């Protein structure tokens, strides 16, 4: 489990598509972006990037993204999933509890986008992000618990 149910969603963005499978709670980066208003532009694509250097953080993926054929398989009311090449809900502002964290954060440390959908502390970055706002996810609200989960105050600009 990447995120716990204890979360507060303040801003959810549904203007991006995703072209790969992803887990609920992965941190996505903007892979490509369209121009203009971009509401239904299929050029607005997010991805879970192995090395996010050069990519801007988009948000936390709030539904598992699956690769199934919507013509032969169907979603039940119990399954809250998104299909590949469909819009994906992204948390851009709020509070989330996740175990997808690289490093050992302290309260009020800045959280950055890390490798492969993880959140990183400054010591775990693959790039120099200390001065780049596009990599900032928010702030850690404490240390990891015994299961490795930590609360993050998300505020993606």
Number of strands: 14
Range of strand content: 35-45%
State the shape: globular
Report low-confidence residues grouped into runs of 5 or more.
none
Order of helices and strands: EEEEEEEEEEEEEE
Main sheet attributes: strand count, strand direction, barrel closure:
12 strands, mixed
What is the terminal separation in angstroms? 26 Å
The structure class reads: mainly beta
Into how many domains do the coordinates divide? 1
Overall pLDDT, averaged?
85
Task: Figure out the total of helices.
Answer: 0
Query: Radius of gyration over alpha carbons?
Result: 15 Å
Helix content: under 10%
Provide a descriptive summary of the structure in words.
The strands form two sheets. Strands 1, 2, 3, 4, 5, 8, 9, 10, 11, 12, 13 and 14 form a twelve-stranded mixed beta sheet that branches. Strands 6-7 form a two-stranded parallel sheet. The model has no long low-confidence stretch (mean pLDDT 85). It has no helices and 14 strands. The chain has one domain (8-155). A hairpin with a 5-residue loop joins strand 11 and strand 12 (119-120). With 157 residues, it is mainly beta. The protein is globular, with a radius of gyration of 15 Å. The two termini are 26 Å apart.
